[in-house]
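note to self — DONT lose this again. spent like an hour looking for the file last time. sequence + predicted structure for the chain T wanted, 205 res
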Amino acid sequence: MAAARGDATDEMLMVRYQRGDREAFGELVRRYERPIYNFVIRQLRHPSTAEDLTQDVFMRVVQNAADFKHEARFSTWLYTIARNLCVDQHRKASHRRHPSLDQPTSGDDGARPLGESIADGHPSASVERVVAGSQVASKIAEAVDSLPEDQREVFLLREIANLPFKEIAAVTGVGENTVKSRMRYALDRLQQALSDFEEYARALR
């Protein structure tokens, strides 16, 4: 008996969509629309552009559905599409400042910037901790902004999209060891940026 849509893997759903099951595609959109938007908005920092590009990602899924191989991981394929569209958008708007993580994402149902998530590691924060947390978030945002593009991309795919290193390697087209090296360099830079906030810097180790 075929698995229910909610229990089916992404790959199973994609195969069903290839065979004409439109509801299977709807389930994939429900699973990934928010994660893809979160990744894109932190790359582009422009809500309307991120919304349009997120729609474009799923349009590419529709247009290229026949190219998906069932032995591949759907998430890798999907984030590769998203990443390539972000790269194209950056090229079109190369005069814009790189995105930062110091602002909450629009329409993110209460989600907060990564910097604040790290800074707010202790829920029972004192006034002093709240002030320090705000400073940490600002420093993380500045540090992420200043990362070389290849390191920043890996950092976002790991911390925002929650992809394993193997998938990030497939998405970016480089070796897994290179991905791990870029992530290490990114974390080293963030730790240096938080040198005055040791307890928060430890969270990045």
